[in-house]
Amino acid sequence: MRLFVHGFIHGRLPSLSVRAGIIFIGGKIMYITCLDLEGVLVPEIWIAFAEASGIPELKKTTRDEPDYDKLMNWRLGILKEHGLGLKEIQDTIAKIDPIPGAKEFLDELRSICQVIIISDTFSQFATPLMKKLGWPTIFCNSLEVAESGEITGFKMRCEQSKLTTVKALQSIGYETIASGDSYNDLGMIKASKAGFLFKSTDQIKADNPQLPAFETYDELLNAIKAEISK
Fold this sequence. Notes:
Layout: E1 16-19, E2 22-25, E3 28-29, E4 31-35, H1 45-53, H2 68-82, H3 86-93, H4 102-112, E5 114-122, H5 123-132, E6 137-145, E7 151-155, H6 161-171, E8 175-180, H7 186-191, E9 194-198, H8 202-207, E10 213-214, H9 217-228
Parallel strand pairs: 4-5, 4-8, 5-6, 8-9, 9-10
Antiparallel strand pairs: 1-2, 2-3, 6-7
């Protein structure tokens, strides 16, 4: 992740101040934009693997099941039933490319503010995708894998990891902007100074009419820029 302070000009840092617990640089609020990964920047990994493996049940995602622990334990049961492990999933991930326009969107966004991808995916899945996206910062989880390659469990960073992360960023003086597509993104979206649904389902949009919803990267980028420029 590139660390920089916006407003750095001619070798001098602008003034830094903290008011009401919020960091200001050169009189402007410091923002961090928090993005979901799957469905926002890259296709859904489990849907791609369901298609590659011929197991349609694995197409269920956090767009369908809001309880992530329940969803993952169900997935692991299906993998065990079919004798599939980490290698088979990684073989599928190697063939996944970012959604068209995602890297360009991310590159421009990173030029105007700090960006963290906050995902419920796992480090064993995310690494090749981060390479294709230009190595942005990602906060995610980890899988427990046996020597045989069987995925035996998973370890979450913390409870409600997306919401917990944005609250932690806010507690050290940053304002957050958040965007995602699924049920597990709603906490961080609603807790942020500005939050947007992106490429979400009709049901989630209908259940949350107060949240602006966008379908293109240009729309989302413009909304983020508008918030930062206030």
